[in-house]
Amino acid sequence: MDKINYSSKLFNNAIEEFSKLPGIGKRTAARLVINLLKQDKENIIHFGNTLITLARDIKYCKICHNISDTDTCNICENNTRDFSTICIVESIKDVIAIENTQQYKGVYHVLGGILSPIDGIGPSDLNIKSLEERVNTGIVKEIILALSSTMEGDTTNFYIHKKLKKFDLKISTIARGIAFGDELEYADEITLGRSIVNRQPFSGKDI
């Protein structure tokens, strides 16, 4: 949709910013801005301040790289979690998806992406070194590979398995209840939960 010059430049600028979000076109952005304008001015200011505070103060956990309000996220600080089991995920949205299943009690490690030579993403671009450091402590007994069921995800699984096979670890992968090509965030909670519970050993020959 081509840029439309509305009667208000402020209104137009707001639409331009909203439309930068994934899945938000210009028409949807216009509806969102109009909806905001129908609210009390105080609510709009609070909305804006919340985003400013998010951008200014959000942190990433120094242990697992999940989002956090402090240097260590509330999952890594929770003594009821099983610190001997680490679930490796691609991004923060996958942590949210798995947590919503309420089937997993271990901790996480967010890679920050998956290997993709076409996109120029190599091992040094991911949080793999810090994963090795966590495993090297001797506390970790199981690694769960919970990456998307894509060629890139499987390639990343194989690379991580190769890097960690020198350690005395059980390495497993989520059950293939997730169809090939699917991303975790789009899986329903029941299917994803069962895939975690029914995880299978990863041999490094599964590609």
Describe this structure in words.
This protein is of the alpha/beta class and 207 residues long. It has two domains: 9-57, Orthogonal Bundle (Helicase, Ruva Protein, domain 3), CATH 1.10.8.420; 67-201, Dna Topoisomerase Vi A Subunit, Chain: A, domain 2, CATH 3.40.1360.10. Helix content is 38%, strand content 13%. The chain has helices at 9-18, 26-37, 41-57, 92-101, 129-135, 151-164, 189-197, and strands spanning 59-60, 67-68, 82-89, 106-110, 142-145, 170-173, 200-201. The protein has a five-stranded mixed β-sheet with strand order 4-3-5-6-7. Strands 1-2 form a two-stranded antiparallel sheet. Strand 5, helix 6 (151-164) and strand 6 form a beta-alpha-beta unit. Helix 4 crosses helix 7 (189-197). The protein is elongated, with a radius of gyration of 20 Å.
